[in-house]
User: Fold these one by one.
Assistant:
Number 1:
Amino acid sequence: MNVYDSWRIAAMLDARGMCATKSVADADIIILNTCSVREKATNKVFSELGRIRDTKKPDALFGIVGCVAREAGAKAFHRIPELNFVLGPQSYHRLPEILENPDTKLLNIDLAGLEKFDELPQMIKAPTVSYIPIQEGCNHCCTYCIVPYTRGREISRAFDDVMRDTAAAAKTGAVEICFLGQNVNGYKYTDENGKTYRLSDLIRATAVMPEIRRIRFTSSYPTEMTDDLIDMFRTEPKLLPFLNMPIQSGSPDVLKRMNRPYSLDSYLEIIDKLRAARPDIQISSDFIVGFPGETDSDFEKTVDIARRVKYINSYSFKYSPRPHTAAALMPNQIPENIKRARLAILDNELNEIQREFNEQCINKTMLCLCEGPDKTGRHLLYRTPYMQQCIVTKKTDQAPETMAQIKITAANRASLRGEFVKD
Ligand code: 5AD
Ligand code: SF4
């Protein structure tokens, strides 16, 4: 979501005749887009702002946007008095106001709704992989998570607005659409005639666009994986056989304290249904280790579930206490050294599973999407349907095919090697 927000900010400034510079020292405006989901990123923001202040041109405008801006509010101006603007994740469309009135201080951290999407200019050329936000905020209240506070309650965008953006992206260069939302499969929009649209309706309407070759969505909440959506994996070949559906922990006790109200059985049942719909589907997850009160045996259950589901492309984090969250006040916070040790064990396991899966891909042919040349310029980087990176040796100097059938020839934990197949 932050990557998407940064694009839109860049496009907004682009529309006003500005362009990106290589270094902070050359810039007329410097915007730090921030994430507050874990403490480490938040801590870096203010030291980075201090560095920017000391490097920038004296009259350059600078400020922060995003979740740390919302979290810090007016306090940000106290910590760094030179700041010109502090804008939350729902109000960055107001950035041009500071260009018009550079001598003021601009502060807006409201959770105003989704008006920013209507106020931002359309992009002139869409990226090959285009993110389309369909909902923002979250109604789940996981006890560790700051998102309901920083991004607010869940709001779904109008079906017609999403489809307008999707069609515009398709017409101006998008080949892959990734629908975005903190709780993307909770998408639900009822129009003025009382007709309700779900994520499955967006997928179906996008799949008929000839320019669009691949569709995916992230991030999904397990209990909102409804049958209509699962069925899309059976009926829509453009929907990639890859799904991010975080389990967070494999321990029922920890899940309860996280306020994630599903049982392991019901979670695994959803995966069974997904595999019945699309036998080659692979699942990715986010994991938190060292949640308050997590015992060795709780942690082992997380490692067990990772092995059992064979998650690929997963993310694992040490639990980080966040302001405004219930878990930060829970007893039995886990010491840092134990969190670190558990993370290393889980990461090791996830890497092993990834390596195994990558090796199983050898000799398979997959339709992959080109992301451009590698650093040496001798190879092309492709992305498989499972989001693995695949390195292919360039044969000619001609512009690469955006989509190509690639036979996988070698694999390690981090990437694949492949060659073009003539079809
Ligand atoms: N500590 C550690 N990880 C967190 N996440 C969210 N909040 C926290 C926290 N307080 C992780 C979850 C989520 C991902 C986006 O970030 O795993 O799925
Ligand atoms: Fe945070 Fe995701 Fe839980 Fe919502 S579902 S509160 S965004 S972790």
Number 2:
Amino acid sequence: MLATIKHEKLNCWIQEVAELCQPDSIYWCDGTKKEYDSMMSLMIESGMAIPLSKRANSFLFRSDTSDVARVEDQTYISTLTQDEAGPTNNWIDPAELKKIMTDLYTGCMKGRTLYVIPFSMGPIGSPISKIGIELTDSPYVVCNMHIMTRVGTKVLEVLGTDGEYIPCVHSIGAPLAEGQKDASWPCAPIEKKYISHFPQENLIWSFGSGYGGNALLGKKCLALRIASAMAKREGWMAEHMLILRLTNPEGRRFHIAAAFPSACGKTNLAMLKPMIEGWKCECIGDDIAWMKIGTDGRLYAINPEAGFFGVAPGTSYDSNPSAMDSLNKNCIFTNCALTDDGDIWWEGFDGETPAHAIDWKGNDWTPESKSSAAHPNARFTAPASQCPVICPDWEDPNGVPIDIFVFGGRRASVVPLVNEAYDWNHGVFLGSTAASETTAANIGEVGNLRRDPFAMKPFCGYNMGEYFQHWLDMGNKLGEKAPRMFYVNWFRKSPDGKWLWPGFGDNVRVLKWMCERVEGKIDAIETPIGLLPKKENLDLNGLNISNDDIEELLRIDTEAWRAELSDIEKYFQQFGSHLPQPLYAQLENLRNRFK
Ligand code: TSX
Ligand code: MN
């Protein structure tokens, strides 16, 4: 196969990386099932992969206890000036960072194979897709990339002799000495992990971690951080959004793209099972949307990924039946528990808790154990094609036309169930001020308010203030054809601490209201914070919810909003001169509407 690769720049770069990292051999991935199977066999032999007798062609992995999540503190946006990375990113001067990492990379693949993974983010050949080449010493990464992206020879054909690609270097940072026994999850110690992005040269360097977004470089690193910077330069959008198609009883289709911070159930919403008659929901993607303005002036979205890398704990037939039905075969499970009959298990799984299991650390576990059986950030990797509600057009190279943007967060109080933005700039204000209360599943104290603008705080590859400006610019280009914008909160609680809204499949009631707003069928109530539903326009048929609870869900607490105003003002200050003037104007308008 090597002989057929005539891309000189690509060959030179691989040679350079190989000379630095000194692998024992180089292997070009062709993306075939045969390749996947033989790679998995090697990992079963080495003890890294555990075949699951209950799920066909599915395997369990247990990571090192130091390597269980993305490492945001060690993730860098390395631009020429710190100002270009902005206040929400970690920054190191590119020359300095490359020096540090070149030292780490020196000899780091000794005793291992360097795998060359040609992959496409987006359907191969789509005008919105991008090609990446990941060089990695992790066979676990190769198998996950097979599921999460389109890997293989076809990608090289599209690349030809001088096509554009995004170079992605990855090493677990654990060279093997002659005769040394390998760890079951080799990686570097925490202080040596670096996830680095050089957006001005479309380059990714990752070292020391084999987990998730740190290692599967097509996802957060390429499709969000690097792509967001490319999108800014080229006039398109790379967003941390699910994409779904909602079809009403008359057969009219609405395409919705929605951004939520972690722990808000984005994957659950992406595969929503509508609880009202006659409405159908189909999933196009659960994490990332790439969007371009089409020849008709509308905004078209593709899902650049080919699989789901979902949080396992909490996923059940109750919370997300379609996700569960995607997991019966051809899946990779990481840091889940192993049951005695050879299946996986996690906290929140349907049915009875097993009396005994092996936990994510490989130790015996019983319900009496003090720690959880699965790690809170345990994951499944599943092919999107296995999702029973995957949209037949999910791989349409032209994408789907977006009608509605939804932003949201988890708020026990203050923020109502739903409100609509007055106009595009107001919607950008809502996205830029999005916030969520922290849960046990994320870092820091439980219940703290964390601003996560457009759910992009960890994923924006340039100055966040300039990113807000890009949103404003896109609105100007889209004009009348711009999607409508909404803000939701499924997580409001009553003063005595119970959930006010049933959530999950009943969220379609809120989406239905949005669709009817788009169709111009219903009017809404003008309030200081935006347009709220009239009670009678929310379809609550078959719901057991009191009038008092509905009023509380839609209540605007003026005192709490005054406090919110000053919090937003403080939060905006960090962006300094990069904060677009129209967002200050939106804050002023909001303040004035409360007068
Ligand atoms: O994913 C969630 N969604 C979106 C679903 C499409 N979750 C799970 C937590 C995030 C990982 C939710 N949790 C949602 C929600 O809409 N709402 C809630 C809060 C809630 C939890 C349990 C109930 C109701 C609301 N159960 C009963 O009332 C019986
Ligand atoms: Mn995500």
